[in-house]
Amino acid sequence: MSTVSMVIPTLNEARALPRTLRMLRLLDPAPHEVILVDGGSSDATLSLVAEAEAQWPHVKVVSSPVAHRAIQMNLGAERATGEVLCFLHADTSLPDDALAVIQRTLADPHVAAGGFISLMRGPDTTRWLTSFHNFAKTYYAPLLFRPYRFFVKGARLLFGDQVIFCRRVQFLECGGFNPQLPIMEEADFLLRINQLGRIRQLNRVVESSDRRVAKWGFWKANAIYLYVGFLWGVGYSPEKLKRLYEDIR
């Protein structure tokens, strides 16, 4: 079976990271390696990462010169030695058989990349409606904005909290994540790797933190997600989108 390298970009993730690392240690099969790429954390993230590195030989730590998710993930991919890359957010946890599911999915040569269904949860609630909308968006966004890709190429629009995975050789072939993009870098990447094969969204669930929805509220959060996704779909500049996103926040 293919070896899997986990790549986790971090920035001030001391609250979420301990649970994520605990869940990673339960994976069966185990990852070939876990590469944490830190963008200059000022909280306890680095000490947690150093502790994990000392206790778990699979863990590698990479320092990024900037806090920029695309650059951090590219750095992790450069250091990776596994045949498969799996990009995991620090506030997202996987089912214990996730790597076996990834390996089976990529055993199909017609599949270039894939991801999971993200279920947003918090300490006291599960965001069912937001999670459903994010799931539906992976289908209706490419159907609306890239219908040829959707019907002929099997395109899906996945985001980081859905845990994107692909073969390392194909990641490098299509150029990885665009380091110039401050937002929507996953969507841009998937459109490029879609030239090499279909994008699969698996009928399996990963759990992600609801911290943004908790901060913004249900209506505001979903309006932001919809607004940014729509503007990107019609070709609005990612640089302007990022400024808009920050202003809304």
Q: What do you see in this structure?
A:
The chain is an alpha/beta fold and about 250 residues long. It has a single domain, classed as Spore Coat Polysaccharide Biosynthesis Protein SpsA, Chain A. It is built from eleven helices and eight strands. It has helices at about 15-25, 45-55, 70-80, 100-105, 130-145, 145-155, 170-175, 185-195, 210-215, 220-235, 240-249, and strands spanning about 5-10, 35-40, 60-65, 85, 90-95, 110-120, 165, 200-210. Strands 3-2-1-4-7-6-8-5 form an eight-stranded mixed sheet, with helices on both faces. Strand 1 (about 5-10), helix 1 (about 15-25) and strand 2 form a beta-alpha-beta unit. Helix 5 (about 130-145) crosses helix 6 (about 145-155) and helix 5 (about 130-145) runs parallel beside helix 10. It is globular and about 50 Å long. The mean pLDDT is about 90. One of its GO terms (cellular component) is plasma membrane. It comes from Catalinimonas alkaloidigena. GO terms for molecular function: glycosyltransferase activity. This is Transferase 2, rSAM/selenodomain-associated.
